[in-house]
């Protein structure tokens, strides 16, 4: 007998909850905000909207399903199952935070604060959750297959991201490495820079677009479902020992970018989750390219 689907509600701690954890009481939190020219009233209203949205989505889960919740900070310790339907209740960025821990499970994005969030990934309202969850679990459910980027190190460490992966120094130093295509006999260029960014079409509205605009790049930005990635080297430094000829490019399916570390330490993290990063040391190699896993975002 196959297991009934499990609805996993992904959420994050609200600003109000963070203030209470830091200051202890509502009154102390209100005083802290007022001393900085802010009112706690709007913070409380957003907290209540989020809590109500979570309650509405939980109530919409079919009775025969199982149900679980996971907070953003615990995603790296939560075990998702193949029968899960993931309901992300919050902001667009929370979908990206969850995506790296999934392996093809359908995702329903629920916007808790319409008008404040862009709604690119959290496309739906809590009132629609019941129909969306059933549709996501059905064989004919329709979804966008959003391209993801992956980094695979030579020691088998692997990292997935929906928006972008960054490789660079763990501070404000300069990273040294060799960079080139991941192909037999391909030449690699020694470089010194503040890091390398490899991004997807979903990330093309954020950090990737910022670099693309700054460079006035002629490369075409990918759409979220395009099987293409763009990559940029940040602030490459020319010197007698380091070059700047490989500072931007495009990767299609089956193509890769190879980086060999020539510094004491380089960190690799995705979608801004610095607390869940890979750490590479001198001589290690990492390959970046399109992941075989995509994010199934329910329409």
From TrEMBL:
Name of protein: Inorganic polyphosphate kinase
């Amino acid at each position: 007998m196959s297991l009934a689907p499990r609805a996993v509600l992904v959420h994050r701690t609200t600003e109000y909850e963070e203030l209470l954890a830091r200051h202890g009481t509502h009154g102390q939190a209100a005083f802290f905000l007022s001393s900085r020219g802010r009112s706690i009233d709007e913070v409380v209203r957003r907290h209540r909207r989020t809590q109500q949205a979570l309650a509405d989505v939980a109530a919409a889960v079919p009775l025969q399903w199982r149900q679980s919740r996971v907070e953003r900070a615990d995603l790296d310790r939560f075990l998702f199952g193949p029968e899960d339907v993931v309901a992300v209740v919050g902001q667009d960025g929370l979908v990206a935070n969850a995506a790296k821990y999934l392996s093809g499970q359908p995702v329903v994005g629920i916007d808790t604060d319409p008008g404040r969030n862009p709604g690119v990934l959290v496309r739906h309202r809590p009132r629609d959750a019941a129909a969306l969850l059933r549709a996501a679990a059905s064989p004919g459910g329709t979804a966008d297959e959003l391209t993801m980027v992956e980094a695979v190190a030579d020691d088998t460490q692997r990292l997935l991201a929906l928006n972008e992966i960054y490789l660079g120094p763990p501070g404000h130093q300069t990273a040294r490495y060799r960079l080139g295509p991941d192909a037999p006999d391909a030449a690699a260029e020694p470089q010194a820079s503040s890091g390398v960014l490899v991004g997807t079409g979903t990330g093309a509205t954020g950090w990737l677009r910022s670099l693309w605009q700054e460079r006035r790049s002629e490369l075409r930005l990918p759409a979220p479902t395009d099987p293409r990635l763009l990559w940029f080297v940040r602030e490459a430094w020319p010197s007698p020992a380091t070059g700047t000829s490989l500072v931007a490019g495009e990767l299609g399916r089956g193509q890769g970018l190879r980086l060999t570390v020539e510094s004491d330490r380089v960190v690799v993290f995705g979608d801004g989750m610095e607390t869940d990063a890979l750490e590479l040391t001198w001589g290690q190699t990492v390959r970046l390219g399109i992941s075989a896993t995509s994010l199934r975002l329910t329409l």
